[in-house]
Design brief:
By secondary structure, the chain is of the alpha/beta class. It contains 6 helices and 10 strands, in the order E-E-E-E-H-E-H-E-E-E-H-H-E-H-E-H.
């Protein structure tokens, strides 16, 4: 059994895989105890990607495992034209790997709508050509509040498009939502103009926004990062001969 860990700034997403099958998954705060049943789940190998601080309970669990792979300590598992591969976020790496396995021999745009909004393009030969990073929708809402004296912090994302907002809170929400959507539509339009047969794969906690509002064929895969981590671990185990 493989355990995959996507360790973010405040939460850790995890998945248990039996070969390619996702058996179980969940989320817990980085400072919380690890799930009790892990100790009896028959875990043989672990892979983890950390963009945030690893809490002590999880750190202790990882350190007690004989086969734990830190994604940050291995070369990129695909060919990339990124000029600074060491700075390519490992959650992006896992998502790119997962997308490349899900769709082969096709041009791919991978969109991860999490704390940040990231775009990564992989050509039909499986080469990562690069991408962009910009604020996610919640980060946009926080920035409006943090960098002004009087504008409020919105706690919810608008669930409808209303460009002609009639009050300040609504105007902030619509500004964040529409900026988020228009940026994405513009990016997709640009890439599709060069690669008409492009497939688009979206993941991340705010992926529902694209599914709801963008009228373009998009494949949503909420477990893309976990799937990519599992694929990387499978390949690593085969090469290193673990087990």
């Amino acid at each position: 059994m493989f355990l995959t860990l996507d360790i973010g700034n405040s939460k850790t997403k995890w998945g248990l895989f039996e070969y390619d099958n996702l058996i179980s998954r969940g989320v817990f705060l980085n400072t919380s105890k690890t799930p009790e049943f892990w100790n009896s789940a028959g875990i043989t190998d672990i892979v983890y990607s950390a963009s945030g601080k690893i809490g002590d309970p999880l750190k202790d669990f990882i350190n007690n495992q004989p086969h734990a792979l830190n994604l940050g300590n291995i070369p990129l598992p695909f060919l990339s034209l990124y000029e600074t591969p060491d700075t390519l976020g490992r959650d992006r790496v896992a998502a790119i790997k997962g997308a490349s396995v899900k769709f082969t021999n096709t041009d791919l745009l991978v969109i991860d709508a999490g704390s940040c909004l990231t775009f990564d393009f992989i050509d039909q030969n499986g080469i990562h050509m690069g991408g962009t990073i910009s604020p996610g929708i919640k980060m946009r809402l926080k920035a409006v509040n943090a960098f002004t004296d009087k504008l409020p912090l919105l706690s919810e994302i608008p669930n409808a498009i209303e460009p002609l907002a009639k009050n300040t809170s609504s105007a902030i929400g619509q500004g964040a939502l529409l900026g988020f959507l228009y940026e994405t539509e513009g990016y997709i339009s640009y890439v599709k103009s060069h690669f008409p047969k492009l497939k688009i794969l979206v993941t991340g906690g705010d992926a529902w926004i694209f599914v709801k509002f963008i009228k373009i064929k998009i494949f949503a895969e909420p477990n893309l990062v976990l799937m990519g981590l599992n694929e990387i671990l499978k390949n690593y185990v085969e090469k290193k001969g673990w087990n």
